[in-house]
């Protein structure tokens, strides 16, 4: 078994693009979160913020309108400045976000923290919440005293927060006057966030309450140990039968081809997409919405996964492994693949150096039909602000504008790598290389990226070949993306009951694949889901969709 470096141990749980679902809470927030009309149907809709292309470095590999990202095979020689003056007013601000890293050292002992504070011109009290604890912590915050709310809160869309929209509508600042239309041009970096991110974040009651964290079009991805799968016979244009045969050959002893983390339903997202099943929701030409698990292709995907599990190809702890533990098993060679967000490449490639060569899988075909690729919600989450006076809100928006600085700027480099000579040194080609201090004091463990961030690009310091491979992979799979048609839409029933309904279906699918329940239990669960609110959600989404088109 390969030994993991100290650097890898420090960073192994820093999974930047984590996409493993968390089991939802089965209780809603208290009535204090409000019960207003959060739907957009029949409302006057605030115009989306005007888009203004960010001023950054010219890419080496061109992006496409369809969603292929800009690629940079070399670090820009001359960095620009995107923020002309210190944005803060010297006050103290409280912020809160999810984290996929390790708990950071306190500000008094953290030079990265102090460097960002100095650049922003504020003192920052940062509460970081591990992904596994985020849902429970947010339920407490949402039910608590409004005065105790942080100034800036990251709403992570990787979990279901009961009555989330009502909480945001009642407690958060309505940002429509500040950001809608050309008003956003006062914050040029925020104006550089593409319109697709705002659309996938969506409005609440017709208004804008958040700032989206833009993400690439490619979502949950099956990351492979390239050598393991190639040696087992992986080939271009493989079919589902080929996939199963390769996985079987790559499994043996105490090594398993397929790794999976708790809550992911045995990597159900990538297999459902390969079967071209809807991603949660599909909308037909008449505007009617259909849930994925009512689709025959989804049921076929579940049956296919159940056979893979029955054949012993999944790690035996697939229903209990945490995402960080699965990442460790992937890096040490125990599992040959794992599902994660595409953005995980930013840590996966550096952490795997000397251990293995990771690669995103090309979807397999099913019955002669090319497989689909999971399409991401183009907003990984969004940021809301506590209600405050106009001057305070404008100052907070200036801070977020700084955090949204694009690639190729001095601000981006500070946020991503810290201070030169302290947190990073430069390679011969000018690329930043983290120091030992930079491995623990960084934007992963103190995740300013989850408060605001500019458009993401393809870049791996000192690894131009990786950037070319990832860009080529996106060119290949972006045309096959399967998107969730409900992104950006609000269903009041889903807001109120979605957590419970999601848990019903997730638990059922997991039990079937794990061999604890028969396939027939899926039909039974669907009937319960429909009668308990699923059909109502479909009606509400159709109404929302009609009002947004």
Describe this structure in words.
With 549 residues, this protein is α/β, with parallel strands linked by helices. It has 2 domains: 85-217 and 378-457, Periplasmic binding protein-like II (D-Maltodextrin-Binding Protein, domain 2, 3-Layer(aba) Sandwich), CATH 3.40.190.10; 219-374 and 482-547, Periplasmic binding protein-like II (D-Maltodextrin-Binding Protein, domain 2), CATH 3.40.190. The chain is built from 18 helices and 14 strands. The protein has helices at residues 6-11, 111-120, 131-143, 164-171, 176-179, 188-191, 195-201, 226-231, 240-249, 268-274, 296-310, 323-331, 345-352, 390-403, 410-417, 464-477, 492-514, 520-547; strands at 92-99, 123-130, 152-156, 211-214, 221-225, 281-283, 289-291, 337-340, 358-360, 373-374, 379-385, 424-426, 432-434, 481-482. The termini are far apart.
SSE layout and pairings?
Blueprint: H1 6-11, E1 92-99, H2 111-120, E2 123-130, H3 131-143, E3 152-156, H4 164-171, H5 176-179, H6 188-191, H7 195-201, E4 211-214, E5 221-225, H8 226-231, H9 240-249, H10 268-274, E6 281-283, E7 289-291, H11 296-310, H12 323-331, E8 337-340, H13 345-352, E9 358-360, E10 373-374, E11 379-385, H14 390-403, H15 410-417, E12 424-426, E13 432-434, H16 464-477, E14 481-482, H17 492-514, H18 520-547
Parallel strand pairs: 1-2, 1-3, 10-14
Antiparallel strand pairs: 3-11, 4-11, 5-8, 5-9, 6-7, 12-13
Helix pairs in contact: 10-11, 11-17, 17-18
